[in-house]
Design brief:
Elements: H1 2-11, H2 25-35, H3 54-84, H4 92-125, H5 133-142, H6 150-164, H7 178-189, H8 218-223, H9 231-236, H10 248-260, H11 266-285, H12 290-293, H13 305-312, H14 323-343, H15 351-384
Helix pairs in contact: 3-4, 3-5, 3-10, 4-5, 4-6, 5-7, 6-7, 7-15, 10-13, 11-14, 14-15
């Protein structure tokens, strides 16, 4: 590690302004700061320095995503061998290695395309490379069905980085979560390839599925009136679904990491759950079909609800910023997610649309929260005068 740091220190003068390779400054700085904390100090003013910078913050989020990633890899293999009818003979590592082999190319494409575009924009503008894609590059694969073609992942990633972030000015300026922009782009641009039961199961080597195996997600089954859910399998993640969204247990481990390190916002997580429970109870009360009558709490362990509440809704850039606004923002996400999921049979998963919608309204929520605070303070001043 010392030799690597010495290499960066030695080559740094050659990429500064006016040097021969000044055009590589953004690239050099990106790799240097990713691996090490630089020795730069403030030139003027008073500043509080901390070893936790944006790259380290993003690193913690990526670390929190690892349990969902690992469980997703295993589940891909589990669903594959289940489709073959070979669950009893397949070993744990057979399932995991199969999933690893399928997921790794998706991650490589996501990071390769996304970071490539980030580096190009940074070099063109003469800015530092933004760190935000360290997380988005992992989120995009985790919210995709395993059978999504790699070229489609690449196109969606490019769309998300360019039109979901860079056109707004880069990291910290985007109004929507870039990963969800990629998911929405794929869903609406290629609906035929993103619907049905086969997209959730890696079909490699599967000529004919085993008897009784459908590949349908619990929500797809619920739309058809089958709400007989295996709660344990749904909780630990042995159900069809997007790569990283199936295991509520793994997602809770990630949530614990975010909360213990102070990176994640518990207000948004809790309010999203409360909003989902509220709508679930309301639908149970006025149930007119089997889906509406499904136990309200089961909505929290199927689909992308848990993943969205922990990793998507809490995005510090696109979420509400005020304390009261976070409660409102999260509650409405949970409420709308279950409402869209149950009431709209053409779109059984509502978390993506709910978060994107509330991303749009987050600034408005904060505006009214701030205006309300101003009015209350003015009223107290007038009363005391």
């Amino acid at each position: 590690m010392k030799a690597l740091r010495n290499f960066f220190e030695k080559t740094k003068p050659h990429v500064q302004k006016g040097a021969k390779y000044h055009w590589l400054h953004s690239t050099h700085d990106a790799f240097f700061t990713l691996a090490f904390v630089q020795k730069d100090t403030s030139k003027s003013g008073t500043h509080v320095h901390d070893y936790i910078d944006l790259k380290r913050t993003m690193g913690i989020v990526v670390m929190a995503l690892v349990p969902a990633l690992l469980m997703g890899m295993y589940n891909i293999g589990y669903q594959h061998f289940g489709a073959l009818g070979q669950l009893e003979t397949a070993a744990f590592f057979d399932m995991f290695l199969f999933g690893l082999w399928k997921v790794l190319p998706v991650i490589i494409v996501s990071y390769g395309v996304g970071l490539g575009i980030e580096f190009i924009f940074a070099q063109f503008r003469g800015h530092e490379v933004n760190e935000g894609f360290l997380v988005s590059g992992m989120l995009i694969p985790l919210i995709m069905p395993i059978n999504t073609p790699l070229w489609m992942i690449g196109v969606a990633t490019a769309f998300a980085v360019i039109f979901g972030k860079e056109v707004f000015g880069g990291t910290g300026m985007n109004i929507w979560n870039p990963a969800l922009v990629a998911r929405a782009f794929v869903f609406f641009a290629y609906p035929a390839q993103m619907s049905g039961d086969s997209v959730w199961i890696s079909a490699s080597g599967v000529d004919k599925m085993a008897d009784g195996f459908t590949g349908a997600t619990p929500m797809a089954e619920a739309v058809l009136g089958n709400t007989d859910l295996n709660v344990w399998n749904a909780f630990i993640g042995l159900i069809p679904g997007s790569i990283g969204e199936t295991s509520t247990l793994a997602i809770l481990i990630g949530a614990a990491i975010l909360l213990i390190t102070g990176i994640g916002n518990w207000k948004i997580m809790l309010s999203s759950v409360l909003g989902g429970l509220f709508m679930g109870i309301l639908l149970n009360i006025f149930a007119v079909n089997a889906y509406m009558a499904m136990p309200f709490w089961e909505h929290l362990i199927i689909g992308g609800f848990a993943f969205g509440a922990v990793f998507m809704a809490t995005d510090p850039v696109s979420a509400a910023q005020t304390d009261r606004g976070k409660w409102i923002y999260g509650f409405l996400i949970g409420l709308l997610a279950i409402l869209i999921r149950v009431v709209n049979p053409a779109y059984p998963e509502g978390m993506m649309l709910a978060i994107l919608l509330m991303n749009t309204f987050a600034p408005l929520i904060d505006h009214y929260v701030i205006q309300g605070n101003i009015k209350r303070r003015l009223k107290r001043v007038q009363q005391s005068a």
